[in-house]
Design goal:
Layout (H helix, E strand, L loop, with lengths): L2 H9 L7 H42 L5 H24 L2 H8 L2 H9 L2 H18 L2 H19 L16
Length: 167
């Protein structure tokens, strides 16, 4: 659940919510249909999206071992699922808690930074084929957070932003 909403509900246990406490709840509820639709698109089109990404990644890295590419693609599928759930919940902590430690360490251990950067560029390109601008704006902050976590804060390249993608 959205952390701010959870806090509001906990604080208002023995009283009615104040007007200013209802605003975040209203905003979340109002955006929920768009979030649900975006989640459904991602769920229903994941295979198509990721197959196109995988095909392009193989083309971009023709001499790379299949196992390295496959590992990165599997991780990207997980990240996309986590980003979709984080977007649905409107909860950045969800992404951070799911990805903290293991994913960045895996990228570091296998030294797949170049593959990951290209993969996420390709993923962003594919998402433009399946999501409208409203849906992309809901998902993109979660993907940006995941990319920052994945590639580490000490990397010289910044994660892709919605404005850089023309969204």
């Amino acid at each position: 659940m959205h952390p701010q909403l959870e806090s509001i509900f906990n604080e208002a246990e023995n009283r009615y919510l104040k007007v200013e406490e209802l605003d975040p709840l209203d905003q979340y509820v109002t955006s929920l249909p768009d979030r649900l639709q975006t989640y459904r698109v991602l769920r229903d089109r994941e295979t198509t999206i990721m197959q196109a990404v995988a095909d392009s990644l193989v083309t971009a890295f023709p001499n790379e071992k299949h196992e390295r590419l496959e590992r990165s693609i599997k991780h990207a599928m997980l990240v996309l699922r986590y980003a979709a759930m984080g977007m649905l919940l409107e909860d950045e902590a969800f992404i951070q808690n799911r990805l903290k430690g293991w994913l960045a360490e895996t990228v570091k251990a296998y030294n797949t930074y170049d593959i990951e950067r290209k993969l996420y560029t390709l993923l962003d390109q594919q998402l433009t084929n399946f999501l409208n601008s409203q849906q992309a704006s809901l998902l993109q902050p979660m993907l940006n957070l995941a990319q920052a976590t994945l590639l580490g804060e000490d990397q010289e390249e910044e994660p892709l932003t919605a404005s850089a993608l023309g969204w």
